[in-house]
């Protein structure tokens, strides 16, 4: 059903479609068969996409079998898709009488009652998707009786009873998602007969018994999620034979035994979640075993001994949760080798002793660190200042001593993050170091011998002499340059004074010789070098003497106040340079001169999404024609970049197609991320547009809240999606006065327009597959641009929906 159909019509249309299945006369044809029934519905309800033509099989939401014969009683109906339409009531039993039905999709409604018991007995049902309703009763065993079912998605309902043993009859069953229900009993051993199984999710139920060893026969199994049930026993060793397994999630059960080492044979394993169980014993030395492990959650168990030194081999790990165990010993220095750690490192509520390893400072991507409630002693090493991405830290309830190092994330933390350490002092604790260690604490740490003092004084004299010599040479060179400029001026040549560079650096060592700062500055003098003009900056193309091409972003006057806080600015830029995400543009350097700031980035040869959609040429002037798979991939790239930003508590200030940059392979990178760190919108501004984005992308609530938010980011991203789908700018004259792209799309039904009339026909008419994917993405865009912020999905959910659309 079209997403634009009013709720009052949606429910009636759904019932009418089903009733027509039984009311149509079996012997009727032509005007008295399906055609007449469907035409009557069209005249009564006038749904968008149902035209006056005789071929009702071409109408949106209706799929008929071919063959040209007369349709009778909707017996030829193959697909019924009525998801997301606020439907209520029960699923009619008439559904079981549709022999040609292959796909029934009615997810995200308010349907109640049981699943019709005869469903699947007399049809060719292959896909049943009823997730996010209020369905009750049991899962009918008839669903699996004929063995045709391939996809079963019943997540988020109120279903009870057991998983039918007949599930094994469906050899082609690939996707089973029955989580968040009230199912009980054991998982049937017949599950091993469903040898095509790829995804099995039964989390958050009341399942009991053990994990069936028969899962090992499902060689294609990629995801096994049995979290939050009442399962007992051990993880079967035979699961290690699942070479394609990527995620094993069994948290929140009553499982026990030692760490299931056999599971480490699954070399594609990226997520292992054994948390909230009763596993015990030592952790294996080869805890990652060369796998692709990214998420290792072993917290809230009874593991003992210590962290194996083999942890240093987990080179792809993003999050490590070992809290609430019985682990002891020292935190191994090898933890510093896991430089991929990004989301969290949690070792809290254990029995670790000794000092904090200096190697923690190598974790420059880590956002959250929790080492609280251990027995760690000694000072906090200054090397931890190398944790440039750190936002949350908790070192409370240990035996740490000495002064807390001066480091932004430490001083910005609450005092509770360091409390419970009797001998720890300094900001943010309200404890003066002198009160603990005496008034001579500072002097004791500055005492030096007489010989050392002489050496220092001698070195200072030598350095002063060398500096004086260098200054004299620079003054002589400057005098020579002025004489040359004076001669040029006499000859009538225009002379541009060289700016006074206050600070500059290149973060990437291999590029330091290739980038010339004066060339970057001079590139901003010529309009011909301008690539794009954004809300916060103007971007120029600069060619270095080495031949390298660099993008130079010059902050506009509204941002010049930032340059007066150079220390903060430089610190934020250095942190951003170390943020490692493939879909975010990272600065490679900066130049601060006079009252201006330049940010340096890699040159993006394919320009921006704005140019791709509307200019038909890239930054090098080459013609380009966007295709749907490329545009969908770009949309997913941007969404994944935003997911990461929101995970690290960063809100983007200017999401627009002009800030989506495309590299040589058309991978999308979201730009202007540094602006979100350099500006502080909370301090107010004369115009919300000065800190909240480009015209046409700004959420409506910003006009009265004057505060940037995560839902606001989702709205702006939704505008970008609509821009991709329609190939129209956010604001165009054809929309009419006071109407932007969002309003134009949302009011399409009132104008009598169908989704096909909204989408760019150059894309939607290429193939049915493209059209189907575009309709799915349109639904996502509509959700993202809901007027009420609370109704907009999280970006993580957006990524899931886009991936689902891509794979449909």
UniProtKB/TrEMBL annotation:
Compartment(s): Membrane
GO molecular function, one term: protein kinase activity
Transmembrane segments: 452-476
Keyword ATP-binding in record: yes
Membrane topology, as annotated: Single-pass type I membrane protein
Domain Protein kinase residues, every copy: 525-808
Signal peptide annotation: 1-24
The keyword tRNA-binding appears for this protein: no
Pfam families: LRR_1 (PF00560), LRRNT_2 (PF08263), PK_Tyr_Ser-Thr (PF07714)
Protein origin, superkingdom: Eukaryota
Main location class: membrane
UniProt keyword list: ATP-binding, Glycoprotein, Leucine-rich repeat, Membrane, Nucleotide-binding, Receptor, Repeat, Signal, Transferase, Transmembrane, Transmembrane helix
GO cellular component entries: membrane
Gene3D superfamilies in the record: Phosphorylase Kinase, domain 1 (3.30.200.20), Ribonuclease Inhibitor (3.80.10.10), Transferase(Phosphotransferase) domain 1 (1.10.510.10)
Protein name: Leucine-rich repeat receptor-like tyrosine-protein kinase PXC3
Species assigned in the record: Panicum miliaceum (Proso millet)
């Amino acid at each position: 059903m079209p997403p634009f159909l009013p709720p009052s019509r949606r429910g009636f249309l759904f019932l009418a479609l089903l009733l027509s299945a039984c009311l149509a006369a079996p012997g009727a044809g032509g005007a008295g068969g399906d055609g007449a029934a469907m035409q009557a519905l069209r005249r009564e309800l006038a749904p968008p996409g149902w035209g006056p033509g005789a071929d009702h099989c071409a109408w949106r939401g209706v799929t008929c079998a071919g063959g040209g014969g007369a349709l009778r009683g909707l017996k030829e109906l193959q697909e019924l898709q009525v998801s997301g339409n606020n439907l209520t009531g029960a699923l009619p039993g008439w559904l079981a009488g549709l022999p040609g039905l292959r796909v029934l999709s009615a997810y995200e409604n308010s349907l109640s009652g049981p699943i019709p018991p005869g469903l699947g007995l007399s049809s060719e049902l292959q896909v049943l998707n009823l997730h996010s309703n209020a369905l009750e009763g049991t899962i009918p065993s008839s669903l699996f009786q004929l063995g045709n079912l391939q996809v079963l998605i019943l997540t988020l309902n109120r279903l009870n009873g057991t998983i039918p043993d007949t599930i094994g009859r469906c050899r082609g069953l690939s996707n089973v998602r029955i989580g968040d229900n009230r199912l009980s009993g054991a998982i049937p051993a017949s599950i091993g007969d469903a040898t095509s199984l790829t995804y099995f999710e039964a989390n958050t139920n009341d399942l009991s018994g053990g994990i069936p060893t028969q899962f090992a026969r499902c060689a294609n199994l990629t995801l096994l999620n049995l979290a939050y049930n009442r399962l007992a026993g051990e993880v079967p060793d035979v699961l290690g034979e699942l070479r394609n397994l990527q995620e094993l999630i069994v948290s929140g059960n009553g499982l026990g035994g030692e760490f299931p080492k056999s599971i480490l044979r699954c070399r594609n394993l990226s997520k292992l979640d054994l948390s909230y169980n009763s596993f015990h014993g030592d952790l294996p030395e080869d805890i990652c075993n060369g796998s692709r492990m990214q998420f290792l959650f072993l917290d809230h168990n009874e593991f003992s001994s210590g962290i194996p030194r083999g942890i240093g081999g987990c080179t792809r790990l993003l999050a490590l949760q070992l809290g609430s165990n019985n682990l002891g010993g020292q935190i191994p220095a090898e933890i510093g080798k896991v430089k991929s750690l990004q989301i969290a490192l949690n070792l809290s509520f254990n029995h670790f002793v000794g000092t904090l390893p200096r190697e923690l400072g190598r974790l420059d991507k880590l956002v959250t660190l929790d080492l609280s409630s251990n027995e760690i002693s000694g000072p906090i090493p200054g090397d931890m200042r190398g944790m440039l991405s750190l936002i949350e830290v908790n070192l409370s309830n240990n035996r740490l001593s000495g002064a807390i190092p001066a480091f932004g994330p430490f001083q910005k933390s609450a005092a509770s993050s360091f409390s419970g350490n009797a001998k720890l002092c300094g900001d943010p604790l309200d404890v003066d170091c002198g009160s603990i260690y005496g008034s001579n604490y500072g002097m004791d740490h500055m005492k030096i011998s007489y010989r050392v003092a002489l050496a220092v004084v001698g070195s200072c004299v030598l350095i002063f002499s060398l500096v004086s010599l260098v200054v004299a040479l620079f003054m002589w060179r400057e005098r020579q340059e002025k004489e040359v400029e004076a001669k040029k001026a006499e000859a009538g040549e225009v002379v541009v004074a060289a700016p006074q560079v206050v600070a500059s650096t290149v973060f990437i060592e291999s590029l330091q010789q290739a980038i010339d700062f004066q060339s970057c500055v001079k590139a901003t003098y010529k309009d011909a070098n301008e690539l794009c003009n954004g809300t916060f900056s103007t971007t120029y193309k600069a060619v270095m003497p080495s031949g390298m091409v660099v993008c130079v972003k010059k902050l506009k006057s509204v941002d010049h106040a930032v340059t007066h806080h150079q220390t903060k600015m430089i610190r934020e830029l250095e942190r951003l340079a170390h943020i490692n995400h493939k879909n975010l543009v990272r600065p490679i350097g900066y130049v601060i001169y006079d009252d201006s700031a330049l940010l340096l980035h890699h040159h993006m040869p394919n320009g921006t999404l704005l140019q791709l959609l509307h200019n038909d040429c890239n930054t090098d002037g080459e013609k380009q024609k966007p295709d749907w798979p490329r545009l969908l991939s770009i949309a997913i790239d941007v969404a994944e970049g935003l997911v990461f930003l929101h995970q690290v508590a960063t809100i983007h200030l200017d999401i627009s197609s002009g800030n989506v940059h495309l590299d040589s392979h058309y991978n999308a990178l979201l730009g202007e991320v540094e602006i979100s760190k350099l500006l502080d919108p909370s301090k107010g501004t004369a115009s919300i547009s000065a800190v909240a984005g480009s015209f046409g992308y700004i959420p409506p609530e910003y006009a009265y809240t004057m505060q940037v938010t995560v839902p606001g980011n989702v709205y702006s991203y939704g505008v970008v999606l609509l821009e991709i789908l329609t190939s129209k700018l956010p604001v165009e004259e054809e929309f009419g006065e006071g109407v932007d792209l969002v309003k134009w799309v949302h009011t399409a039904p009132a104008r009598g327009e169908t989704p096909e009339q909204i989408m760019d026909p150059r894309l939607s008419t290429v193939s049915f597959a493209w059209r189907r994917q575009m309709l799915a993405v349109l639904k996502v865009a509509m959700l993202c641009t809901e007027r009420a912020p609370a109704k907009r999905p999280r970006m993580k959910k957006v990524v899931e929906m886009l991936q689902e659309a891509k794979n449909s």
